[in-house]
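Recap from last week: sequence in, structure out.
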Amino acid sequence: MRIYVIRHGQSEANLLEAHAGWAQVSLTPEGMAQAAAVGQRLKEVRFDKVIVSDLLRAQQTAALALPGYEYQTDWRIREISVGSLMGRRVADCAAQLGEPYLRHRSARDFTAYGGENPEQMQRRVSEFLEDLTKEPPEARIAVVCHEGAMYSMLCHVLKCKLPYLAAYADNGGICVFSYRSGRWVLNKWNETGRLEPEA
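Predicted C-alpha cells:
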C-alpha cells in the first residue's frame, strides 16, 4: 500500500501568520493555485481512495487537486488544536501573552489555552495510520491534511520523536509513505515535482 499525503495550499491563516488550528479558514488565491498544481503533479497517479481532513482548507485543496474523486473525511488528520489562540496572529500573541506563550508555542503544547499537545496529536494520527494498514496491499490512497498531521505521520513511520520542523513541509508539498511486510517506509518527503505511479 502506498499513501500520498498532501499538505493543503496556503491558507488565509498562513498568509497572516496566525494560528489556524481547527479553524475553518479558506485558501488564498495563491493556495488555490498551489492546490491546482498538485493535481498536475499527480495526474498520472490513480487513487483507490481519497481521505481528507474535515477542515475547510484541506477540503478546498482536495477539490482542486483531485477533481472527480469522491472522498471521505477524517477528523483525526486535522492540524493541532490551539484552543483559544485560534485565529490570533502569532506576533499579537507574543506581545500580549509574553514568555509563557513563547515557551508553549516552541513546545507545540497548547493545552494551557484549551488545545492539544504533540502527544495527543500523535495518538490520533498514529491511530489513523494504523487503520490504513487494513487496506488492500496494492491500494494507492491520497490523504489531504496539514503540516502538523504530516509531521506526526513522519514520526510514526520513523518510530522516533523529531524536533518540530526538523523536516519542513511546504504548502502543496507531497509526502509518500508505503506499508509492506508489516512495516511503514518513508519514500518521499516534501516532493514538489511531478510524481509518477510507482509499484
